Q: What sequence folds into this?
């Protein structure tokens, strides 16, 4: 049984930012970070494009960035939260620079600011086409400098502890639910261990693995959101799943799909049919740099109406040396599968990229459960609304990591560790006899979500998805209650929960808005509250 003042689940930008700020504020408290894989592996690491912030005051200002964010969010952003993130963002970015993060610069020493879909000006700081990797590197190094931060790798969080584990019957209307820590599976010893804490922070990332095509790493299985839901926490806007318009189409197949950064279109890449004809003018006056929801739907429509597997991104007209300087990994990846981007167009298609909904939080990262905070992609902070503006995600992680840490530092002395939490009860369970029961259900889940709850939805498809998800849920719960816990089984269980929440919320929203497009309500805008109590 482990004890610490603060338990942070997840070691990406949100988790590390929270830990670092807390360590600065309160060197007297102990902070434990759990990561389900190696500490270098997180959703943050896979971010290519960059981080958006108002940096050049001659060409940009807060009001422009706020307006772009609100426009992308299609009427569902919380304007107060948008203003907080945009105005505090540059300060947080300067901090990561001070901690050693590198961003590309021009010859005169100024930052090379990129532009992506939905942005009205150049404001994206980036490091080549591996910005997330660079930010992760700098944060890990900074966190390691604090003696009161302990990072434990290869611990898979199973459930957060509440009064439920003390024998109390909780419902979603119970007013005083509190979090006392989490149960986690030590992947090396196969033992389930208890992590008790005064305060717990969920920074567990997204759930892209519910879809067949996704740019998310294998670890993106919605663990934090699923744990929060089981604990009766409030979640919201789960129907808004962002599909990145341009994942690389690889006939050989791969998981995750390789991302062709939106920054490539900001650099001058043009979306075309496979015959070389431009088509974005039919959908939006911003052409290839329209917001992601619009571009993804446009590509999806072109693929379906033409009966093809992909469309193309034309970069043949771009300066070769500058392209390779900005996007060395994209260039090498394309080359590795036989694509010379200066002679061939890049085959692309949409892939699941980001969850805009999640655990409902306030302006300080508090959830509806006492002593439980959340930050990053697993949350619904109010920043993204119905669609995330490109490169706002890393910014959100920094800002809410900082703000959550401030709130925790003020509150933590009012809490004590709950000592009488029981050990995990695995009595009567056995090793699963056939892993195919897990792997096949995962495949079925991806097919269900991809075919019925994708970029374009209908009421009939959503109903069919719910029927099939319920069967998967029953089968998986039966397996869960009789089998010894494994990461694979737990991830499947979490993904089924997320798939249910996405589909259920999509059924509740009887309109088309942002990332949720239902052909039964193509032009109907009728606000629906899809918060799960």
A:
């Amino acid at each position: 049984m482990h004890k610490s003042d603060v338990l942070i689940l997840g070691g990406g930008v949100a988790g590390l930012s929270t830990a670092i700020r807390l360590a600065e504020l309160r060197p007297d408290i102990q902070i434990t970070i759990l990561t389900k894989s190696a500490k270098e592996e997180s959703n943050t690491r896979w971010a290519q494009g960059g981080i958006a912030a108002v940096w050049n005051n001659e060409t940009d200002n807060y009001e422009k960035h706020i307006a772009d964010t609100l426009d992308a969010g299609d009427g569902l952003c919380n304007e107060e939260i948008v203003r907080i993130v945009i105005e505090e963002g540059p300060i947080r970015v300067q901090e990561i620079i001070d901690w050693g993060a590198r961003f590309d610069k021009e010859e005169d020493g100024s930052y090379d600011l990129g532009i992506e879909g939905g942005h009205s000006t150049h404001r994206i700081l980036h490091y080549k086409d591996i910005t997330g990797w660079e930010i992760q590197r700098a944060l890990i190094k900074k966190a390691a400098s604090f003696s009161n931060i302990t990072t434990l790798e290869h611990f898979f969080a199973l459930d957060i502890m509440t009064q439920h584990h003390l024998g109390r019957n909780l419902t979603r209307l119970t007013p005083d639910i509190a979090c006392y820590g989490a149960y986690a599976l030590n992947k090396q010893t196969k033992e389930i261990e208890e992590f008790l804490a005064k305060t717990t922070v969920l920074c567990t990332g997204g759930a892209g693995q519910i879809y067949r095509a996704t740019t998310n790493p294998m670890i993106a299985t919605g663990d934090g959101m699923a744990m929060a839901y089981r604990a009766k926490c409030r979640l919201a806007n789960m129907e808004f799943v962002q599909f990145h318009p341009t994942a690389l189409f690889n006939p050989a197949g791969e998981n995750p799909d390789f991302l062709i950064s939106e920054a490539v279109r900001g650099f001058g890449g043009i979306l075309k049919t496979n015959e070389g004809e431009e088509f974005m003018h039919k959908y939006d006056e911003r052409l290839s740099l329209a917001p992601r929801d619009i571009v993804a739907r446009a590509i999806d429509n072109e693929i379906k109406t033409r009966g093809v597997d992909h469309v193309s991104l034309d970069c043949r007209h771009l300066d070769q040396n500058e392209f390779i300087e900005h996007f060395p990994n994209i260039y090498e990846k394309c080359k590795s599968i036989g694509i010379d981007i200066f002679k061939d167009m890049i085959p692309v298609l949409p892939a699941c990229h980001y969850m805009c909904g999640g655990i409902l939080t306030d302006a300080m990262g508090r959830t509806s459960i006492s002593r439980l905070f959340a930050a990053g992609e697993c949350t619904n902070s109010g920043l993204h609304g119905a669609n995330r503006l490109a490169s706002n995600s890393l910014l959100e992680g920094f800002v809410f990591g900082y703000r959550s840490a401030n709130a925790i530092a003020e509150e933590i002395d009012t809490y004590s560790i709950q000592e009488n939490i029981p050990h995990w009860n695995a009595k009567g369970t056995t090793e699963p006899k056939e892993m195919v029961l897990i792997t096949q259900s995962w495949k079925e889940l991806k097919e269900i979500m991809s075919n019925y709850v994708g970029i374009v939805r209908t009421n009939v498809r959503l109903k069919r998805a719910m029927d099939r998800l319920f069967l998967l849920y029953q089968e998986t719960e039966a397996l869960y209650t009789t089998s010894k816990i494994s990461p694979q089984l737990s991830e499947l269980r979490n993904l089924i929960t997320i798939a249910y929440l996405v589909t259920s919320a999509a059924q509740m929203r009887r309109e088309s808005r942002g990332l949720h497009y239902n052909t039964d309500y193509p032009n109907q805008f009728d606000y629906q509250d899809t918060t799960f109590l």
Observations:
- Residues 436-484+486-518 form a domain with the Methane Monooxygenase Hydroxylase; Chain G, domain 1 fold (CATH 1.20.58.100).
